[in-house]
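With this grant's support, we have settled on a layout for protein records. An illustrative entry appears below exactly as we store it:
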Amino acid sequence: MPVPVWVGRVTTAAVLAVAGVAAIASYEHMRALAAAAGEGWRSWLLPISVDGLAVAASMTMLVRRRAGQCAGVLPWTALLLGLGASLAANVAAAEPTVVGRLVAAWPPVGLLLSYDLLMQQHGPRGGPGVQPVRSGAVPNPSKGTER
């Protein structure tokens, strides 16, 4: 069943808002962590590389879903690694209390969950290894499903 246009737009706006919060909240944590690790002037680049990987993976997944293909293992791996690195940096740089760490962990977790909700509106559900089948496709025993 097609998703109404307004629902897709509201969901996309919500994901963009969550992504903005995640980027703002985690940028300084990652930069400070890189500076503490001795990266000096390069410390401002680390957050861009982490968030850039997550954005590239997200866009690849979106394009593949719109083409009726599964998201793919590499984009999911890149997204999870990028968000995992962001999560680790946020928690490592947080106030060393349970509440401080939980608050710092939330932005990347919220981003992953909201992004997956958006992807569920853009074509077949498909994590790693899930292949959507077109109607009329003939199974091929050597390759799984013929596309």
User: Anything to note?
Assistant: Residues 5-125 form one domain.
